[in-house]
Amino acid sequence: xxxxxxxxxxxxxxxQHSILSKYHLNKIVVNHKEHTQxxxxxxxxxKKLKIPYKSVYRDDLSRLKRIDHYDLIISCGGDGTLLHVxxxxxxxxxxxxxxxxxxxxxxxxxxxxxxFLKQLTKYLDGELSEVSINRLMLKINKKIYTKRIFNxxxxxxxxxxxxxxxxxxxxxxxxxxKSSGIWITTAAGSTGAIKSAGxxxxxxNSKKFxxxxxxxxxxxxxxxxxxxxxxxxxxxxxxxxxNGICYIDGAADSVRFNLGDRLTFSNSSxxxxxxx
Length: 276
Prior knowledge:
19% of the residues lie in helices and 37% in strands. The protein is of the alpha+beta class. Helix 3 links the parallel strand 3 and strand 4 (93-98). Strands 1, 2, 3, 4, 5, 6 and 19 form a 7-stranded mixed beta sheet that branches. Strands 8-7-18-15-10-11 form a 6-stranded antiparallel beta sheet, with no helix packed on it.
């Protein structure tokens, strides 16, 4: 077995030479220690179990020529790290470790510093599940932009306070709409922002996906507001904005689009496996 360990840089590593106040530096030093201790535990356990591994910061993943040949990819951070790491994986298995549970969201994590040895041993003994997580594909006009949307996307005007204008097509039904934007989410991402906005939570391993229009203009009497999509269905957004933007998986990625561009969302042919 060959393992790739992908870690985030702590806020302290990023900002230690900045002009942050001593108070804020002291706060992030505590988080830094927790994160680095988790890294040390991961490396120590892998060495103890005689499992070969390579370690890389998540921001350096693009420099690796091959990632999919690793038998297991351990993400060390929170959900943000996992979302970043999965963008570089066509197929593979992710074992997510929350490096700082008190300060980091780790909904998809299977372990933390104190349970890593136990959970990894259970995985090696075949006692944990390998769950196939569906991802979404985005086409802009006729070109595939990505097949690796793990969580959700937000489509809106580039200036958030301005109105989002577009035509939405779902199951051959079309509507011209004005709103604050549209959430589109995988089943795995359905417990996040879209649920807070009034959407539905789906089982993480479902191949269904969902959209929800944010703050629709009430004067348009829109009907295509929220729907759980079947696996074979798609959502088409025809832009009526000069400066539109699509945020993918939070801060992991974003792409701008213009007036007349067409965005098509459907299920991807590249699911990914999470250890659960």
